[in-house]
């Protein structure tokens, strides 16, 4: 008789199993309690705390690059003065929401979900989660709701640089930042020009000797007031929920208008964005060289700098921008392709994140492995031929939570529809030969292009197409019929 090295516990059953206790997972818990009060649910979280991304990332200055009136939950008004909030405030908001609604009592921490198997005869998922002890916790559920995002929490992306072993200082990726990293009075080079880099540079510049943002190519950067004057006025004169709702719709509509203008008149919007940068930065540095991207606005996500803090650091001489390629790391810094040498005591590789599908979950349906790239995304949340499973993904051109809130509402509508009609299984199926598969996201950003082949495809038309449009999704997910002819319902009988 052999002994298992990783024993599996007896299965615990819930109606709905949610994976992830970050912004999306806590939102899912609220919606299930609100709209499906008779359903039992549990949330499995791989780490030991609530917050997801907002707890994981600890680098200096971490903040939202979306306003909190749209990044916040639809059901819980954001009451702080800052519209562009720091990471600690967002984390408190998520944790307070979990506590106030009792969602925190439904979370099983240190449960890292590894595999899920669907059995059509039983209309049941069997889910296995690894525990710190090495044991496997086992759950069964009727519906599996993945709210783990698409970042790999184990490690960020760092290119292969020549000579890193020669560098005498410290090299750190922002995803691995700790309080032990000392940058006061030191020469810092931040490699990258995305959202993380433009957040780090002005914050590090407050106490560092000097900070250099080293980029291969520029990014569109937009300055925006840290506080929303209209929102704060509304909150002073009206009830919080009303003020929050008005501000949320104001920001949604303005964001949609701006995105559509960028897509319809890209050259005009490009020139407008560059004019705003020149107004902010003056003659401090060469805008054409350092702030003029080769791509059109919203071909990649724009970077937001509250109160123009990055531009202020540049104007004050506390920071600088270099556009060049790295030839090699040296003992004292970096040698660039142009021949320039950058001295550094600390090098921060803000070079991006790694994406992963379904939290790297091994998925199978009736004994057959599911290969995500061979599936098609239904309404941006479910997968062709995969029953009773949904994922919460946010927008690339707007706040993450806008889409996740709608997704949670739809999942609840779907569950209630099934209960009302006595169905146990719902499966999106594509039987339309005219629908062609296209990439899941049409972004040219490096973090997307490195991983896009791992993700499900989207289709050429609804309901398989991702429109990245809140107004359309609102109509389709909140009001359109659940039984649309594409979603197939059934009630398997156990054999």
UniProtKB/TrEMBL annotation:
Keywords: FAD, Flavoprotein, Monooxygenase, Oxidoreductase. It comes from the Bacteria. The keyword NAD does not apply. GO terms for molecular function: monooxygenase activity. Its EC number is 1.14.13.-. InterPro entries: FAD-binding_MO (IPR051820), FAD/NAD-bd_sf (IPR036188), Flavin_mOase-like (IPR020946). The keyword Cell inner membrane does not apply. Its cofactor is FAD. Belongs to the FAD-binding monooxygenase family. This is Flavin-containing monooxygenase.
């Amino acid at each position: 008789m052999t002994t298992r090295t990783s024993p599996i516990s007896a299965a615990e059953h819930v109606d709905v199993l949610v994976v992830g206790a970050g912004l999306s997972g806590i939102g899912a818990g609220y919606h299930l309690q609100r709209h499906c009060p008779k359903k039992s649910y549990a949330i499995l979280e791989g780490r030991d705390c609530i917050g997801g991304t907002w707890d994981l990332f600890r680098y200096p200055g971490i903040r939202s690059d979306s306003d909190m009136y749209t990044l916040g939950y639809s059901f819980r008004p954001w009451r702080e003065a800052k519209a562009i909030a720091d990471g600690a405030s967002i984390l408190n908001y998520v944790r307070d929401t979990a506590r106030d609604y009792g969602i925190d009592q439904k979370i099983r921490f240190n449960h890292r979900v590894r595999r899920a198997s669907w059995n059509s005869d039983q209309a049941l998922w069997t889910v296995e989660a690894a525990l710190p002890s090495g044991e496997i916790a086992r759950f069964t559920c009727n519906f599996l709701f993945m709210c783990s995002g698409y970042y790999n929490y184990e490690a960020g992306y760092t290119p292969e640089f020549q000579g890193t072993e020669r560098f005498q200082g410290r090299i750190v990726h922002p995803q691995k930042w700790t309080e032990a990293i000392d940058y006061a009075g030191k020469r810092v080079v931040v490699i990258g020009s995305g959202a993380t880099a433009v957040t780090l540079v002005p914050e590090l510049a407050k106490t560092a000797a000097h900070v250099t943002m080293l980029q291969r190519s520029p990014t569109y950067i937009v300055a925006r007031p840290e506080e929303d004057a209209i929102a704060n006025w509304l909150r002073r004169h009206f009830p919080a929920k009303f003020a929050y709702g008005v501000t949320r719709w104001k920001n949604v509509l303005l964001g949609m208008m701006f995105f559509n203008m960028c897509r319809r008149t890209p050259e005009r919007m490009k020139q407008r964005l560059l004019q705003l940068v020149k107004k902010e930065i003056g003659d401090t540095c060469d805008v054409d060289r350092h702030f003029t991207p080769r791509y059109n606005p919203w071909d990649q996500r724009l970077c937001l700098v509250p109160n123009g803090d990055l531009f202020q650091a540049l104007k004050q001489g506390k920071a600088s921008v270099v556009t060049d390629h790295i030839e090699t790391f040296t003992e004292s810094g970096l040698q660039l392709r142009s021949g320039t040498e950058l001295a550094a005591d600390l090098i921060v590789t803000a070079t991006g994140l790694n994406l992963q599908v379904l939290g790297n979950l091994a998925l199978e349906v009736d004994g057959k492995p599911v290969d995500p790239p061979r599936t098609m995304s239904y309404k941006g949340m479910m997968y062709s031929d995969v029953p009773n499973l949904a994922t919460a993904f946010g927008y690339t051109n707007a706040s993450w939570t806008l889409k996740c809130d709608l997704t949670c509402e739809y999942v609840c509508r779907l569950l209630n529809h099934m209960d009302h009609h006595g169905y146990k299984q719902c499966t999106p199926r594509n039987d339309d030969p005219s629908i062609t598969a296209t990439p899941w996201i049409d972004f040219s950003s490096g973090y997307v292009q490195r991983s896009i082949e791992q993700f499900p495809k989207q289709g050429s038309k609804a309901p398989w197409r991702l429109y990245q449009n809140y107004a359309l999704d609102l109509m389709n997910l909140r009001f359109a019929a659940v039984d649309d002819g594409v979603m197939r319902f059934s009630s398997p009988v156990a054999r």
